[in-house]
Amino acid sequence: TIPKTLNPQWREQFDFHLYEEQGGYVEITVWDKDAGKKDDFMGRCTIDLSLLSKEHTHKLDLPLEEGEGVLVILVTLTASAAVSISDLSVNMLDDPHERHQITQRYSLWRSLHNLKDVGVVQVKVIRAEGLMAADVTGKSDPFCVVELSNDRLQTHTVYKNLNPEWNKVFTFNVKDIHSVLEVTVYDEDRDRSADFLGKVAIPLLNIQNGERKAYVLKSKELTGPTKGVIFLEIDVIFNAVKAGLRTLTPVEQKYIEEEPKVSKQ
């Protein structure tokens, strides 16, 4: 719920598993939250998935029926279930059998199979150290957001801690080997938008597979260091032929843009 506004920005991502090839309908309703009494209905809209092309992010401006205003949403229909989150103890690339299968999937002899499936990247977000204190208590409530193109996943929040341990594994499909992996640490604020604590940007082509590395957190513009380091271990497995062909096609537009936030610091 976003209080006291007629132009809310939710920036929430939901993943649904579709079992119907033909598509189906997604219905979205908007409500006004009323404390102590019944919530007011503000409108609905319906998306016919069969009208949308696959493997492409569609930006839709949908007028609310039975209400006023427009809902702006992004919809991507993709055949891959490779965007996932798991704990450090259960991750696919540490299992030799699974790793072999994935390596086979992106081997050169399968270069012409599913051209859009260029590769896979696995990011282990282990921990951070020496973060900035964003709260008046001298602590922060840090969580970490990992983004690759229009895919965005986040860890849980570790409360009142400047040296949080997340131990999460994120898996993304690679659509473009020239894309840059962005890892951002925020301080959760219950009543307001999260405060920025630092970020790193790592081009996929610069990654040394399986190397656990401490990255110094930088400012929003990546111009200089902020406080703290983050420990990541990243693996990229990709098919060079598909990556080369994909380089010749236009890059997917990045839709999720952050609005500038003023940190109380």
Q: Topology of this protein?
A:
Elements: E1 25-32, E2 40-48, E3 57-63, E4 70-76, E5 84-87, H1 96-105, E6 119-129, E7 142-148, E8 151-154, E9 165-174, E10 180-187, E11 195-203, E12 211-218, E13 225-238, H2 240-247
Antiparallel strand pairs: 1-2, 3-4, 5-9, 6-9, 6-13, 7-8, 7-10, 10-11, 12-13
Describe the structure.
- Keywords: Calcium, Membrane, Metal-binding, Transmembrane.
- This is Multiple C2 and transmembrane domain-containing protein 1.
- Belongs to the MCTP family.
- It comes from Ilyodon furcidens (goldbreast splitfin).
- InterPro entries: C2_dom (IPR000008), C2_domain_sf (IPR035892).
- By secondary structure, the chain is mainly β.
- Helix content is 7%, strand content 40%.
- The protein is built from two helices and 13 strands.
- The strands form four sheets. Strands 5-9-6-13-12 form a five-stranded antiparallel sheet, with helices on one face. Strands 8-7-10-11 form a four-stranded antiparallel sheet, with no helix packed on it. It has a two-stranded antiparallel sheet with strand order 1-2.
- The longest helix is centred in the middle third of the chain and has 10 residues.
- It is globular, with a radius of gyration of 20 Å.
- It starts with 24 loop residues before the first strand and ends in an 18-residue tail after the last helix.
- The relative contact order is 0.15.
- The mean pLDDT is 84.
